[in-house]
């Protein structure tokens, strides 16, 4: 097999013009190359280089290549383990996009009685939208008007100087719409860095690490309490331990895997999954989804039950959504990259010397 000519936009989206596509390829390739290099030892010890991670556009993918798809639940696990009941965790997850940290965010629409009529979900990284805004701001406005609200104005999305505002009034809450990811950890850059960091084989005290939790604790990539990060890291490292070279499959991105509707029931007996649709991305790489009952059915989303409970929160649906990413691995058994024999460490910054003539104020007491 040959090298990839260029990285495609996430979901094989067609929004970008030729210049935009070239810029996207450069962004992904540069991000992968930086992830391969890893952090400078002054920033982190035992975390570089990542010799088994590679750039699809610069290194050949061998004929033995295989793809591994990793999936996880979209509901934020950190919220789940810190809540005392289902209604509490659903309410908390619906309250803010900042807690929706499993590479899936959503927004809930209700009628005047408060019943849910539609829930929109996105797993599109913010980097794509920032680039699209630089190359074609008119396309950004048109997409917001199509998918969020026809009344969106240019000034809602861009500053006076013309800079795109990722967290704008139409993409900053769980009630006004969700165009793309905005939670601080939900970025493509984070996905690439996590996969590269997890590609390091670690042998501690003569024993190779293999479980998800021991790998993420030692490699210090992502957050150990999430559904996504430990699972991604564990799957990537399993390939690395087979002495394979690894990369993220093209197009690089996070995608919807499925919605499971076992235990769901509609008032008229219709298939509850039929009201789930993808609106952006291709058939195997969807990046935008909507759950909505069409007009004329005489019921709405809030009338559908899940295990006997009416849908009162968008988070109830997120419980049944899985997100995915796909890794590519090849040259099995051939990697000569040496394993790390220590865990990642972050060097302590050197204390700033205080000149002799400078008085140091007393530290305030905590009360």
Could you name the key traits of this structure?
4-stranded antiparallel sheet, 367 residues, globular, disordered C terminus, alpha+beta, 10 helices, 13 strands
Task: Summarize the structure in words.
The relative contact order is 0.20. The longest helix is centred in the N-terminal third of the chain and has 20 residues, at about 20-35. The protein is built from ten helices and 13 strands. Helix 1 (about 20-35) runs antiparallel to helix 4 (about 125-135), helix 1 (about 20-35) packs parallel to helix 7 and helix 4 packs across helix 5 (about 135-145). The radius of gyration is 23 Å and the shape is globular. A hairpin with a 2-residue loop joins strand 9 (about 275-280) and strand 10. It has helices at about 20-35, 75-80, 85-95, 125-135, 135-145, 155, 190-200, 210-220, 230-240, 315-320, and strands at about 65-75, 105-110, 115-120, 205, 205-210, 245-250, 255-260, 265, 275-280, 285-290, 305, 310, 320-330. Strands 1, 6, 7 and 13 form a four-stranded antiparallel sheet that branches. Strands 2-3-10-9 form a four-stranded antiparallel sheet, with no helix packed on it. It is α+β, with helices and mostly antiparallel strands. The chain has one domain.
């Amino acid at each position: 097999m040959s090298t990839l000519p260029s990285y495609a936009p996430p979901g094989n989206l067609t929004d970008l013009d030729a210049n935009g596509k070239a810029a996207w390829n450069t962004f992904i390739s540069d991000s992968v190359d930086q992830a391969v290099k890893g952090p400078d030892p002054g920033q982190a010890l035992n975390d570089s280089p990542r010799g088994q991670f590679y750039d699809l556009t610069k290194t050949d993918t061998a004929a033995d290549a295989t793809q591994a798809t990793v999936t996880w639940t979209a509901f934020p696990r950190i919220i789940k383990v810190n809540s005392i009941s289902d209604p509490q965790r659903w309410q908390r997850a619906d309250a803010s996009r900042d807690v929706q940290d499993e590479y899936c965010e959503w927004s809930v629409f209700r009628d005047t009685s408060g019943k849910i009529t539609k829930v929109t979900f996105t797993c599109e990284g913010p980097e794509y939208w920032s680039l699209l805004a630089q190359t074609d701001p008119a396309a950004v406005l048109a997409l917001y008007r199509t998918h969020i609200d026809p009344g969106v104005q240019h000034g809602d999305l861009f500053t006076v100087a013309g800079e795109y505002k990722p967290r704008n009034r139409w993409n900053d809450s769980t009630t006004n719409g969700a165009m793309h990811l905005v939670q601080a950890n939900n970025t493509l850059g984070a996905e690439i860095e996590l996969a590269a960091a997890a590609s390091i084989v670690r042998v501690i005290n003569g024993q190779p690490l293999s479980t998800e939790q021991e790998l993420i604790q030692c490699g210090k990539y992502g957050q150990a309490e999430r559904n996504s990060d430990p699972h991604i890291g564990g799957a990537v490292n399993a390939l690395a331990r087979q002495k394979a070279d690894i990369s993220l499959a093209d197009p690089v991105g996070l995608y919807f895997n499925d919605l499971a509707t076992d235990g769901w029931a509609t008032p008229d007996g219709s298939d509850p999954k039929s009201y789930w649709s993808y609106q952006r991305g291709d058939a195997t790489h969807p990046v935008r989804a909507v759950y909505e009952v069409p007009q004329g059915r005489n019921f709405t989303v809030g009338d559908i039950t899940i295990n006997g409970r009416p849908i009162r929160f968008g988070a109830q649906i997120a419980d049944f959504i899985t997100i995915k990413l796909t890794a590519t691995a090849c040259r099995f058994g051939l990697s000569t990259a040496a394993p790390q024999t220590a865990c990642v460490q972050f060097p302590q910054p050197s204390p700033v010397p205080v000149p002799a003539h400078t008085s140091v104020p007393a530290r305030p007491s905590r009360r």
